[in-house]
Amino acid sequence: MALVIKSNTQHWWMFLLRGLLFIILGIYMIGSPLRSYMALSFLFGIIILLAGVTELLYAYTNRHTGGWVWRLLLGIIDSKDFPCWVLPAYYNARFG
Question: What is the mean pLDDT of residues 40-51?
């Protein structure tokens, strides 16, 4: 038990920096909602693209098991939705 407490208190400054970073980012996001929307939309698009690619890789590596076609289809759908998330958000924020 003492080892866990010592380990947590040894790196207290990391929690402090993370908290300060979240406070600064929160204030920035409240101050500029359009840029925040564009950045978050882009981030969600990247996450969906990575999820689709990993599902495609998972389906390919496990193609000899049952149900791999469903994984393949979900990976294709997720990867296809990437431009639907990123491009409209970029276009609306830039030209809208």
Answer: 81
Give the pLDDT score at 17. 92
Distance CA 67, CA 48 (A): 21
Tokens of 94: 């830039």
- For residue 67, give the 3-state DSSP assignment: coil
Residue 9 buriedness (CB in 10 A; 0-12 / 13-18 / 19+): exposed
Structure tokens at 22: 């979240």
CA dist., res. 88 & res. 49, Å (int): 15
The pLDDT of residue 36 is above 90: no
**CA 26 to CA 40: how far, in whole Å?**
13
